[in-house]
Specification:
Two copies of one chain form a homodimer. Chain A has 152 residues and is mostly beta strands. Chain A contains no helices and ten strands. At the A-B interface, strand 2, strand 5, strand 7, strand 8 and strand 10 of A face strand 2, strand 5, strand 7, strand 8 and strand 10 of B.
Amino acid sequence: MTQPFDWDAPRPGEVLGMLPQTADAGLYFIGQIRTPYARREDCPHQGDFDGPECRIEVLAAYQPALLGLEKRAYVQVLYFMHKARRDILVQTKRGSGEAFGTFALRSPVRPNPIASSIVKLERIEGATLIVRGLDCLDGTPLIDLKPWRGPI
Amino acid sequence: MTQPFDWDAPRPGEVLGMLPQTADAGLYFIGQIRTPYARREDCPHQGDFDGPECRIEVLAAYQPALLGLEKRAYVQVLYFMHKARRDILVQTKRGSGEAFGTFALRSPVRPNPIASSIVKLERIEGATLIVRGLDCLDGTPLIDLKPWRGPI
């Protein structure tokens, strides 16, 4: 039996910071994201517009806020990486041991673990978006949706 | 004397939602953004890579997390639009009265008023980034910095 890999243990050379005692602002989870990725090791390294369909389930209370989004081909999704540590300021690569500051990485580990992904919108069914291009864990809390107007 | 414009008053046709009583997660402000825009009416409609230099002042406690970011030409900045209402689900355009869901707009007014901007990194001085491409109010709280790897 091998030990399961501990995603949360700091690696040699990593620098931990002290987080504040209290938050400066609050987030509301406005829905959840359903993907085929149940465990961190299942997640692809980044999303792919030709990848599997994923579902973004918006809470019924926020459904009116989707009006007009169906006309967009691409959507920016902000979500909260609720399984990630928030206190590592310098991270090292698993293979090389090379050190990078957290803000020079797109790793989930960061003081405010908010991810931003651009997804391809296939369709909207009620309060659920069917999209391609996500790489996050199944059950990830949704924070925001915005039309994407930048280049693809 | 004309009345000052009330940015916060809902317009006819707008739909208000009920926000939860308690937050689901907390944000830490990791610094602040200094721009030439003191009032909302001073902010350009969107950022411009040829616009004025702005300063992103990261708190000293998080400075180690900048390691390696100086090599990047473009940075994604997440910030908290602390002056915006959070409870409007359908918004109407000031001129036409046309209605759009909040998630079909990039307006600051949204349940979680987090903005995402891509900026051009000019240089880093200590814990301060000098950048171009921001359109936010002076004093806006900073939430996150990530290297931008997408197309520009």
